[in-house]
Amino acid sequence: MEQKLIGEFTKNFNWRCTRENYTYQVTNQIISNQNISKVKGSHKFGKNNKDVCGVLFQFCNIKEIPKGLTKIFPNLKYLGIVNSNLKIVTRNDLKKFTNLEILFLRGNEITYLPGDLLQDLNDLEVFVVSVSKIEIIEPNIFDNCKKLKHVDLRGNFCIDKCFSSVYPDLQNATMEEIKEKLQKIYPLWGEKVKNFKGEITSETLKLIKENLRYVKAINSLIMEKNFIKSNFEKFRNESKKEIEILKEKLSEIEAKNSNSESNFTQNFKTLMKNEELKDFTIKTELEEFKAHKFVLAARSPVFANIIKENVNAEYLNLLDVSSDVFRVILDFIYTDELSENIEINFIELLIASERLKIENLKNIAEEKLMDEINSENAYEFLTLSTKIECEKLRQKAFEEIKKYYEDDGN
Fold first, then answer.
1. Are strands 150-152 and 126-128 parallel, antiparallel or unpaired?
2. Model confidence over 53-67: pLDDT tens digits?
3. Can you tell me the distance from the alpha carbon of 100 to that of 124, in angstroms, rounded to the nearest whole number?
4. Among 87, 114, 90, which Cα is nearest to 354's?
5. Fewest C-beta atoms under 10 Å: which of 21, 56, 97, 264?
6. Signal peptide: which range, if any (predicted)?
């Protein structure tokens, strides 16, 4: 299912450039589907979609860069996502933006910039990922950016800490001192500065001083984690009152019978096997599973909301979850148990548990996957855990990457 953007066309947005800046702006919209098929808004100044050179998202809720923008606006040069909770950005997200000159990603939740991120952006001149939560920047990220003029990574922990602790007096440094520091922290860049024979103007010197922190941060892949977590949580709709009461009773019974299987749990196992009273069907890719609405609602706030919004619904399509994985999920919903020796795709189980907001199962899947992290798949797990907010898994992947580079350095 695709989504329509609701925004406005304007010629007044300042991209800090003197060229054409006819822009489509989207504000305060939840982008629940990453595939954009249509946009809503009235063109001005006799323009059309081909005249749009910039798209700006402000104060939206976007986990990934939406797909389909370049089909609607084929001549995009500027892309901005500001204060919109963007968590991850990859080369695949940007590969269609071949004409991009300005990439402005300020005030988001990004923690990792991969080395191939800008590989396809040959015309990129301005790259801004400021006021985010960056921990890791791979060192070859700018290798293909021959036209790059401005980089702004301010307001990120790894960069700010590095700059303030290692070069507290940089603003008073001479050009010779800067050359020496550059050669130590980034030999390639340092050599270029050392061999430069032209005149170093005061403006150029100032620019080098201001940007030395970024050079250091790029070379220092791993910095210790020190984030201040946000103090707010997204509001979730509560299920029916009787469902909440049922959940409370279930918790009380399980607490009282922590050393042995409770009668309540045993009754739920019996209930799971009773096909006659089941009133809801989940359709997966290969199989259909019958269940009780009140059990699904009690165990998953997502199911609770779906059932609450359409109490007469008899089925739900869940075609992007494999039958094997949903069978495990349904067993867990009824029994709150997962077999120790079960053979399942725990990555898919983790993603599905997060989607259905079954926190206990998500935590179990996360623990299982932590044992599988190694130097070869750590970046993959870092990306996954950042995307679906698995802090322990993300930290384990981060530590594995840190260990790899520490060992490599020795």
1. parallel
2. 999 998 888 888 999
3. 6
4. 87
5. 264
6. none
